[in-house]
Give the backbone structure.
Amino acid sequence: MNDRLIRALKGQPVDRPPVWFMRQAGRYLPEYREVRSRVSFLELCRSPELALEVTLQPLDRFRLDAAIVFSDILPVLEAIGREISFEPGMGPRIHEPLRDRAGLATLVRPDVAVALPHVPATLKMFREARPDTPILGFAGSPFTLLCYLVEGQGSKDFKLTKRLLWEDPEAADQVLGLLADVVGDYLQSQIDAGAAAVQMFDTWAGVLSPPDWERWAGRYAARALARVKGAPRLYFTRDSSPFLSRLHQTGADAFGLDWRVDLAPAREILGQDTPIQGNLDPIALFAPPEEIKRRVHAICDAAGPTGHVFNLGHGVIPSTPIAGVEAMIEAVHERV
Amino acid sequence: MNDRLIRALKGQPVDRPPVWFMRQAGRYLPEYREVRSRVSFLELCRSPELALEVTLQPLDRFRLDAAIVFSDILPVLEAIGREISFEPGMGPRIHEPLRDRAGLATLVRPDVAVALPHVPATLKMFREARPDTPILGFAGSPFTLLCYLVEGQGSKDFKLTKRLLWEDPEAADQVLGLLADVVGDYLQSQIDAGAAAVQMFDTWAGVLSPPDWERWAGRYAARALARVKGAPRLYFTRDSSPFLSRLHQTGADAFGLDWRVDLAPAREILGQDTPIQGNLDPIALFAPPEEIKRRVHAICDAAGPTGHVFNLGHGVIPSTPIAGVEAMIEAVHERV
């Protein structure tokens, strides 16, 4: 198997940094849009065959060192008793948002193997289909899932979530504890099904002040990750800079850093032995190819030759030109 | 005159930190909404009498140490030749967005005294009305104004702005140079009209990687601020953490920091003699009063007794409860 990803995530020497990127199986690919013209997003998430098909698409097109299983972060909320829907043009909507202590009684503690079967099934099929390529599993963080559960959708200010934290910390702790246990078991089930590494996405952690991040995001990320063994565990938040000196509180093995982070000083703060992942601005893929290559090389130079997984600093956006993606990947291949 | 603000912005001893807050004249106040039920936002910005009325409203209600003149950051775009409109429920819209080099010919270099008369007029009236209270002037930063000019409105990813920077840096430099000169002269005109300090709002700088911030945000903030003399000049961006070690490149005298910044380490990075402003999470004003007070005291403790202006870490949001604002201000007054 291509072992660049795992070697980099363990801080072992590699011939060049491994490269994969967030949302590499997604709407910027015409072949993905073709599948989506036939099935809804939720149907795609619930069909291991179709999820496998779109997981493989970027591997067939680009020289990538890893796949990431196609899924979404919200199935965990379904597993604890919420219905989710996606309306076209809108983000997800969580029916019956949880706003207070009364909502606690409506949550269920699921058997993860029963409630979240699709992603492990996709992973097993991937291992058969591509024995030579490692694949990442993933889940949303407990805090980010709490945000969706409380707001019922995305938010500009996450006012309702923060009010719950501050007005009824005990209730918030109960929900976050449940979410952490389910997220942890879900990530473990993905490793057991063949994931070579797992990534926790803490998309919304950046709305918190550093002490709030410690209390509500870091603490429950750590509780979830403590349940996960047998493969490297990555933690990603799209606002890394405010929390750099605290990231080790999650207990993660490696950290995905957003594009506003200077990698050289970040490595000093995290410790030179801590593997990192990132961090090209996803919008840089719209720049001319020479500019993309210059930026990729600058990032690799700043990160140094070991303990670095090349990635974007956030997910690729739907209108991204394929040529930009190709220039990025080519530049990483030039690092041998 | 109440000199706490100016003393704090000069690093001189004060009996307690001065307090004002971003958007203190705004929609969270019923008396502001009453005025807005009669006139549009643009009418309000263009009438020095009405702008004075709403500028005074928070001073009449709370024990604040400074006013900030009521206005918006977009008049500068009108001055260089763009029409702006506000549709209810939407943000601002800039007619004829500038997308490429061809747009350069449509921009004009204004006489600031002629093109931007309303804010200086309001400031002069304020100085008459409240000789004992200092007032801040403000402007958007060149980069943030460029974002609005290019996108034509707010944006999730500022893709069009970044494409202009990377595909035609010369054209971007020309627009930013013009904006910097106009912003600088506009801030100077506000000091000449009686502003005790001025603040540059670089709202969108946080979409840039640190090297891009240097090249496109910091450089032109510095060019604008170099034209401004005679009063302390503050620089604020709503994402401060990624740029802390570079903020002095703006040449500003003091820095407004968002709520994701730990003040004690930030002061080490900026230098203990650099005055700072901030940084309570605006959503914390929804918390119970004791929790608000605890957070205000923690911020003041971390900032230390000199060179700190108490403020929110971003503007107050419209649905904020007045009681939360009162608890915050009371806590600052407890610092004597």
